[in-house]
Amino acid sequence: MKLLLALCMVSLFCTGGSLADDIRDAVFAGRFYPSNQSDLLKNIDSLTSLAKNSQVKIPSGKYLKALILPHAGYPCSGLTAAHASLVLSEKQFKKVILLGPDHRVGFTNGAISDVTAYRTPLGIINLHNDAAKLRNRSELFHANKASDLSEHSLEVLLPFLQYYLKEFKILPIVISRGNIGGLTREIDMFRDQNTLVVVSSDLSHFLQYTEAVEKDKKTIQMILNLDADNLLKGYNCTCGKVPILILVSLARQYGWQPVLLHYSNSGDTCGGHNKVVGYAAIAFYGDKFMENKKNTAHRFTDKQGQALVKLARHTLMKKLNKKIDPVESRALEEALQKDCFQEHFGTFVTLKINGQLRGCIGNISADESVKEGVRHNAVSAAFRDPRFSPLKAEELEHVDIEVSILTPPEPIEYRDGYDLVSKLRVNVDGVIIRKGFANATFLPQVWKQVPKPEEFLGHLCLKAGMSADAWRNDKLEVKIYQVQYFDEEK
């Protein structure tokens, strides 16, 4: 029975709760955690006292942005979940965006309850007004009562949050397979400085103890490295893969620093060593002031981003005398009339064929509107990139287009090459280097091909016409920026 509490996958639907017209009652109270309020408070208090014995180094001068916590039964994952007590305090956040995986229903993208509140044995938690706004604003989100009645990943964490935060409202989202980039951008629109993002997820499932520990160690390291690519490819590494990938995407955009608070598995807490489930508590820290500055360039929705990608394609089709559906053309022109497309940001357009670069040109300075920048840079990437011959008409149907929108570049002060390397954020920062008339830039996407800072800087120096080790020996002018980028949906 104890092992069943540890499982992230529960095959039976629970029938102990109900979904009223406006309140979602606790469905898993009495199964994953105590249904009696007094017993539940004693349970969490005991787990919290044990967790307080742990010592974790928290980054100084940083602000808590997000948490990953496990969602199994409290006898199994409760100790690890209680390590949230090391970083949470009463009234620390007014809103919690709670993301958990879909285990039982099966749907696309995100499900947001259309109730007004959730109830646990510790009381009522009201939904934030943003829950309805997000559900109504984006086609990526919908209400799903079947999920409300059968999904445990959100509910199991609520008593811990009630115990530590006391007063807050929730934006609860159950995530299934779907558009990770689009989900991330839409969710990001509803964050502010008073918002905590909490991802509910266990790690590996049903492995032998030593195998599970080794696998979980690798998964945790991927998260700490913000290594979305390998995490995406991983098998049986975490049941909340998509929610975690959304969080990793946010962390890469804003430079959040992950910190491991605790790791355990069911073999440590409530069962044998033959088939165990892994649990981790991970906190993410960021800079409050810098994020406020970055938010100005991270506010294009997925729909708006796709309009820019389509603008780039239509521009190339016109240039190559390709026929464009007039209805589609008029719809695009109408969409591009919105004020956001008239604002000035640096933009890049990248063209690829079969995953290989076919052209990439952009402007770092915000000299023209986003709309005009994308139009001009699409033409330049196709026909004026000196590394490639001009794009041919027959190639266009094989081209994948990516549009990047840049934040204003900011200079980095550094003592030497080693200090410079320590200040660059892998998968987050685009980098500009300059010395005299020599200059070059790499978008943050380049980190995927060159993940080591030393090699990244070496290739960037070569691109600028300098020696590969110029970053070590010469004092370069260095600036960084971040991007919001959109891949073409086909």
**Shape, please?**
globular
CATH topology of the largest domain: Protocatechuate 4,5-dioxygenase, Chain B
| Mean pLDDT level | 90
Q: What structural category do the secondary elements indicate?
A: alpha+beta
Percentage of residues in helical conformation? 25-40%
- How many beta-strand runs? 20
Proportion of strand residues: 15-25%
Terminal Cα span: 47 Å
Q: Could you name the CATH homologous superfamily of the largest domain?
A: LigB-like
CATH level-1 class of the largest domain: Alpha Beta
Q: Can you describe this structure?
A:
- The model is unreliable at 1-18 and 293-298 (pLDDT under 50).
- This protein has 18 helices and 20 strands.
- Helices cover 35% and strands 23% of the residues.
- The chain has 490 residues and is of the alpha+beta class.
- The two termini are 47 Å apart.
- The longest helix is centred in the middle third of the chain and has 18 residues, at 302-319.
- Strands 2, 3, 4, 7, 8, 9, 10, 11 and 12 form a nine-stranded mixed beta sheet that branches.
- The chain has helices at 2-6, 37-51, 74-81, 129-137, 145-150, 158-165, 180-188, 209-224, 228-233, 241-254, 266-269, 288-294, 302-319, 326-335, 370-383, 417-423, 453-463, 470-473, and strands at residues 23-24, 63-69, 95-101, 110-112, 117-120, 123-126, 141-142, 169-175, 195-200, 205-207, 257-265, 276-286, 346-353, 356-363, 399-406, 410-411, 430-435, 438-442, 477-481, 483-487.
